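Thread title: Can someone regenerate the structure for this chain?

I was given the following input by a collaborator and told the matching structure tokens would be attached. They weren't. Posting the sequence so someone can regenerate them.
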Amino acid sequence: MKKLRSIACITLAATMMTSAFAFTIPSASAEDIDTDTEIAETGYDHRTVAYDSLPSLDTENLNKSVSLLYTDTRVLFLSIYEKHQMTVLDGYSRSVNGRVSFSSSDESVVTVSDIGMITAEGSGIADVTASDPVTGASVVSSVYVDTEYAPTEKPTIRPTEEPTEKPTQKPTQKPTQAPTAAPTQKPTEKPTAAPTQKPTQAPTQKPTQAPTQKPTEAPPTGKLTLNATSATVYKGCYYHIIASTSETVSFKSSDTSVATVNSNGIVTAIAAGTATITASTSSASATCKITVKAGDAVNISHTTATVDRFMTFLMTSSTSGVTWSSSDTSVATVENGFVYGVKAGIAVITASTSKGAATCLMTVDSSYPVRFAYCSPNCAAKNQTVTLICITDTMRTGVKFEIDMGSSTRTVEATSCTKDADTYVWKGTTSFSSAGTYSVKAYSQFNNGTSWHSCSDGDTTAFVTGSSDKTTTVCEKRRASDEVIDLISTFEGFLSEVYMDTFTGDPTVGYGRVIYPGQEFYNNLTKAEAYAYLVQTVNNDGYADSVNNFFISNNVKFNQQQFDALVCFVYNTGSGPLYNDDELINALLDCYDGSGGSSKTYYINGDSVRIRTGAGTSYDIIKELSYGTTLTVLSTSNSEWYYVQLSDGTKGYVSSDYISSRSSGGGNRDLNYVDKQNFINKLCQYHHAGGDCVYGLLYRRVDETEIFFYGDYEPCYGDYKYPIKFTCANNSSFHT
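Best answer:
Regenerated them for you:
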């Protein structure tokens, strides 16, 4: 028997992190369980999912039990100039940093930004208060600042001027003017764990850490200057010598056994010792003395990497307390391992401690001609108008779409263009008379040019089904509807800027898109870009495919709303339950339509389930039944307690929650014939996070069952509109 013991989307690290927090989430706990109830010994596992599936952060229709605020740091100890990101959660266990307001009781001791970034300014004690305008609740963190471990110099502050050139996309020719200032919006935390799920509010203030070095301007012809005349480099690391001149420059090392240098001025420290690097032009020369020394080992996830202009690349280090820096902030900036490509070029990214360092040679390529492309509706009917959508930078002056029609190519011109922050959203329309999946590619023109250019981000598909009916079941491939994508976006919440998940440590952006080390991504998203990311994620990252593969491989007929419900479910839990949880699998596959004369076999779906002399826990226990025990159901007149007979003739009452059925075969599998209560019981068990029952997750499970059975895509937030009955198998006080 393959019983699901846990879901991988909550990692051990997340559990440890949760246990370390100095607050308690308002939820039903194991202590609430009555050990003499029928549920106490059933052996049901606590199925675990991530912290999401929550109502909009701005909703005023909040359940009273989840209207309080909590923080991960009720007491905090800092050194002067040290920073700490304060995280504030609502009762759904999700971040509300973007909704609350922060204040300090003494700004000479600590200051706090709009997103909760605390900075220690001087010795003393101060309270940082987070206040919620929606619920009226507040939470306080007491901050103690001491000078014992304070740095000797206060960190410099990043200039407040905006870049002179707005972020754009890959031109067909290189722009003639590079940005003169680094972008100032970046994450404030280092990722610490594997991805699962998501907080739902983005930071609202840009970080204030200065670049480590400003680019130098080229001197007049005939002159040559270097960014340093001497430098100490740890063995195995890169160092970047930047030559400022209007002429071609070459580099040479006096001792290549100590340090080598390439044509771009990238020095590689080979062995302990000294070497002189000479930079030469036709009319001048300059030198830099490189001292190579051994240091402590420092971990870095990448030693070479590439990021495209205006995108962000995630690097990590498992070494604690590293400081990140860039050799040329006019090319790439870095903060907490997030490297932002400013313009095409090279830069050395360094992760350093007081006794060692590790480096990455970062290449910044030109930006892309297309950022995102997708079709709406995501699942269209024949002859329905389909909107083709492309998002570009503001240097693009035209967009077209080419559609592979099989024997021909259809070209659709974008007929509308809307400016959205530093992007353009282009749209064109078409329709399809035949069902199928059509390849679409978006192209753009640069700066009134005549050439058309595209990239892999311009690739998308139009999915056309034979019918718009959401209730007819067929065994064929489907795609998520716009309704369920919109619902997922509501559950996940919008994150413009990458944010660190409070419980998992995962960097997350957009509508719940988790960023992995080594990935490049667009940060500081518009809602249109975030929605495009979500469509890509649902379509291409295995969520829709896992549901299609499960049903089609098992010859199950299913309709659009049933498919949507399961896509929403696996987006939250991962696809593991469809392949590892026998109880949920059986609930979904036991759906024969009876056309082949099939019959049902009833069995016990838990361990140590009690059969009693009457319908209720107050009646005497006859015996305990193990998982898989078969029985005959004599009466279901009491929906909570079935009257049953065992194979040895014993008759009694068993709680209906712990009786499942399977068909003997025959007929066709059709989800319209699924056992409703059995399916609800198995699906709604996925409402736990960090070992606790979480109402936000139960609300999401109920919403998914309402989609499945009733085609209702409106979130309920606990205001149940349909007779969805569920009680947690491990905690009888937690129920719908």
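The two ends are 29 Å apart (CA to CA).
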